[in-house]
Amino acid sequence: MGIFGMKKHAPPPHPRREPRYAIPLTADAVAGVFERCADFNRRTLYLNNDPARQVEMLFIAGQVRNERACDYVLRPLTQNEALRRAPDMDAAFDLMLKGGLYSLVVQSRDTADQVIFDLVDGAAALFFPGKEQVLTLSAGTEEKRSVSNPENEPDVKGARDSFVESLRTNTSLVRRRFRAPELKIEEQVVGRRSATPVDVLYVEGIADPDLARQVKAKLEQIDIDALLMTGSLEQYVTDERGTAFPLTAYTERPDRFCTGLAEGRVGVIVDGMPMGWLFPATLDSFFRTGQDRSTSWAVAGALSVLRYLCMLITLFLPGLYAAAVLFYPQLIPVKLTLSIIAAKASVPFSTLTEVLVMLLAFEVLQEAGLRLPSSIGQTVSILGGLVVGSAAVEAKLVSPAVLVVVAIAGIAGYTAPSQDFAGALRIWRFLITAAGGVLGLTGLVLAGVALACRLAILETFGVAYLTPFASNAGKQREGHTVLREPLPDVKTRPDYLNTQNRRNQG
Hints:
Blueprint: H1 27-33, E1 40-46, E2 54-60, H2 66-79, H3 81-85, H4 89-100, E3 106-109, H5 112-120, E4 123-127, E5 134-138, H6 167-177, E6 183-190, E7 196-203, H7 209-220, H8 230-234, E8 249-251, H9 254-263, E9 266-270, E10 276-279, H10 297-326, H11 334-344, H12 351-371, H13 374-394, H14 400-413, H15 419-439, H16 441-456, E11 459-460, E12 463-464
Antiparallel strand pairs: 1-2, 2-4, 3-5, 4-5, 6-7, 7-9, 8-10, 9-10, 11-12
């Protein structure tokens, strides 16, 4: 029995077949793959109403837009004069391939795998009798969620668009901002069953070629059935699995994504996921917002200092309170000490138990608010906090000081722009609080050292996780550590990214 359940036996080998469908390239064979699929359709067409010129058309309803199929495929097949004058079916095939049909993308396929995946992507396939090739025509739908305002990364002075679930819409949002032809978009397919398109984006001449190769190699190594969730990407592209801290930085804002590309990072966009990832991810990546570059350097620097200060508060304040009350009451002002003693006179639990229980109650309320519908989630969180907190104090289960300390620590944790990073802080907050309650200030110091050592050994694609506080083999970051320099003074890109062109302005 292990910590993750019953001890597992060695898994069986994952069957991998290439080609996936070893079948002849015929309409009957391809139709057999989609047997018992209600949305699969097959039609027999006559070129210019000539039964001697028969064509089989295969498509999947819902993936193909009816108007496009009619305008780009059916009408040309039945009404195009050039096709009518073609001497034979081979000539008609060549004419269709070179413009006889009106689709933007017309491809000649010679394997069943290619045809099947084109059908799934929204293409119509034309089978010619006795022909070893098949024509596939792009006629897919464009049904997608419209580009809307960012929900999780609001910005007062920033753009008002965000990524959506459509891959090509997302790449177009990037292209509109980064119009340089040097922006390269290389596509890979991940997932044996899902066949999810994944695009790797980088700026040639700026990004480190080795970094781009590492990211593409990590994606090629992902051998799973389906890439449908963000965790399937984030957990497979990183080598470190024993940490709660996120090692991948993501954003739903195209402007932030393009800023990362301009710095020399490598981006990844996955079809079906409304966000983009930037590599490598460092500590400062999770404390920066898009608004930092939109405000003055003084305001941005002050807000950055505030975020780091709140990180220390949410980590150490509960443990510091427990250590001070239990071991060092002389560090607390006399009046406050008397108030705490009077409040704890009727509380049956120790200070450490109070703090840990209230931290746990805070997490329960937060989780309940996230899982409920948005219309009632906030109401439940607010009422739950007020009712549970007030009732606990009135019932003499906890002291008011503990409630205040836990509330301050919880609110301070919300200042972190990345909720994944804030989640890791909450886990370490429990550990640090327990260490402070058991060993006092010594426990706090030891827990803090353990946290620093844990972060110090983390790397993402060869870059220290503690950047900008780590040296990165002598390659310090310029322009933005905790305090940001005025943008006109930041003449170079981050040195630790090993960019090909470090100069970013004149």
